[in-house]
Design goal:
alpha+beta; five-stranded antiparallel beta sheet; 26% helix; 328 residues; 9 helices
Length: 328
Amino acid sequence: MDMENKTIRVKGNNQQPHSYFTDEYSNIQILDENDNKIYEKSFIGNVNTPCDDTLNIEYGYKITLKHREPTRLVFQSQMLNEKEEYSNTTTEPTSYIITKYGLQKEGTSDEEQYQIYKRKIDKYITKIKSMIPDTKMKDGNTYFIQRNKLLSVILELNETDKTQYLEENKILLFGNIETPKDDKKDDSKNDVTKLTLTSEKYKINDKYIYRVQKETKYSDYIKNIKTNGKVTIFKEDGTVLKSEEFVGTGMKMTVELQNEKKEIKIAVAGDLDGNGKVTATDLSTLNKAILKTVTLEGEYKLAGDLDESGRITATDLSTINQMVLKII
């Protein structure tokens, strides 16, 4: 089961599951959130049943398993590479709900499942701490896959636990955190015959204005714009941004002078959901971009490319984490 891509693969080898059984040895059913059966596969003990099926799944879907020898039914944690805490003890069908905290066995409460998830994270933290040599611990570019996997699972926690785990494990996650040097100001001028638009604080090209800092109100933003035209900022829903509202990524700025009009999109550093702030949601989105489960384009890529390298990398992930933790 791959929850990053939300798929499940059912694979059966071209072998008899168990030659002693001449009837059904095991059965798997997958149901959607409305209990509609979308898949079923039955395995007869003494019959070769090759299969290799991949299905799209969502949180809330249910997997029902039946096994004649339930003690042989093993759930393996991909994160820990070991058996999950729960096991099956009955030959009757048992159901598991697919949640962001793993497979939730029927009869297990949401809180119990959440605590199981936290215990897995704690064990994974111990595991990767033992893997990373002391000489490499502060280098966030080493053991990146393991650090990134840990970040992915921490980001699914509730806000209180998420903040705690990010703070307690910041060196493990990102290495030694150093405050980056101040950006050099860009004094280049936009050579426009009549309508002019420049900024000493922000960087402007034909399509975008960026290097806008998080939680910048329109009233402060406009002070850093030099133009002989009229400036209006439109939110993504088409309404006009007000003086005390934050400028956000994806908003459109228009500058007009007589019959001339320039339209450019705004990129706020670290803001990937357009609210002008930098939160754990933005951290999660950037992490998914690195894992290539989402794609950032245009002004959103500019907002995520915090070191302006042209690529979304672990360095940007480290920087946005510092922003979330209010280190920078």
